[in-house]
């Protein structure tokens, strides 16, 4: 069967693997950078122009939103692996059936969130023990976000579909545009019009709606491989089961990390305000430093999924090896930058000498080992690409479990340096079994 091809998709089953991986990873990294800045702008605008009560209300809602988005993105990631398989195999009808199925699931999920979320938002906040003065703002913000849930689902679904056919640039462009629109609307509705959390919520929903609409229009006009008429929407229950199994493992994996981080943050807080502030700043630096490795991992998933679907086992192996080489280069680059600039980087966040010194102590230990998370990201990209979602979940659980246990053991004895050592132990524990296990792995 011939592989599908148009001018707006990229066939990752032929040509230079290095070139494919780099071309795929760069737009993802750029989009993630804009996403980080978008979150920062949101926080600054609401905090400065709407007040501390509104900031607390939005911060509370963010925790709920993150869980919903983790669930959506998990299902989308599972769907993208299946779509990549079908695209690589040239199975256009199966590709469209999968896209129709995941769009249907996304819309049903959005309706369920809306039906349950609107009447239950007050109960949710009472269970979370939200401060009484922030309750009204939090309820107002969350209800508007629930109304906009279909936009969030549709953007993530279409972005995953485009990436599955080798196009990472288009959804990234739309994400960047939506980030800019959100920031401008935040300034207009919150800072100028003084609409508070109502303005912030409307800005978020409008930006999400724009990104979803642009993705759908782009696909309908330029990507026939993914275009279908909405009246033909239906659920293929066999594909739905596979998608939810793949996506369920991924969603659990993504939820495990923030839960572990909450436990670690609680341990860090026992060291005092300076250590907690230092760790918070260091994590922000890490978030940016680890973006290249995470983006290469996503590129590996797309390339390996397509080649697995095309039955090109040798190219799957080459994709793993060359992806891991790129991961090593990215990790070593981060090591060099952090070790050389650890004090100036910490100084971007504070002028407090004690906090800067604590952050530098953290980087003195972990700065030599950022190649480890690059390798763990590469392993995750490979495991997802071959459909081994259960193994990918167990790998993440290994990493976070060892990291949490080591944090609880080492931090009381070593302070902030113990957190760094705990990270190294977690990454090493994951690689210790996943690298040799890969040879015996039977892809799903």
What is the alpha-carbon Rg in Å? 22 Å
How many strands, which pairing sense, and closed or not: the largest β-sheet? none
- Helix/strand-derived category reads mainly alpha
| Morphology | globular
Mean pLDDT, nearest integer? 87
Order of helical and strand elements: HHHHHHHHHHHHHHH
Report the helical percentage.
over 70%
The number of helical elements comes to 15
Strand content: under 5%
Distance between the termini: 21 Å
The total count of strands amounts to: 0
Poorly predicted runs: none
Give the tags.
single chain; 444 residues; mainly alpha; 15 helices
Description:
There is one protein chain. With 444 residues, the protein is an all-alpha fold. It folds into two domains: 219 residues, no CATH class; 198 residues, no CATH class. Helices cover 84% and strands 0% of the residues. It is built from 15 helices and no strands. Helix 1 crosses helix 10 and helix 12 packs parallel to helix 15. The radius of gyration is 22 Å and the shape is globular. It starts with 16 loop residues before the first helix and ends in a 7-residue tail after the last helix. The model has no long low-confidence stretch (mean pLDDT 87).
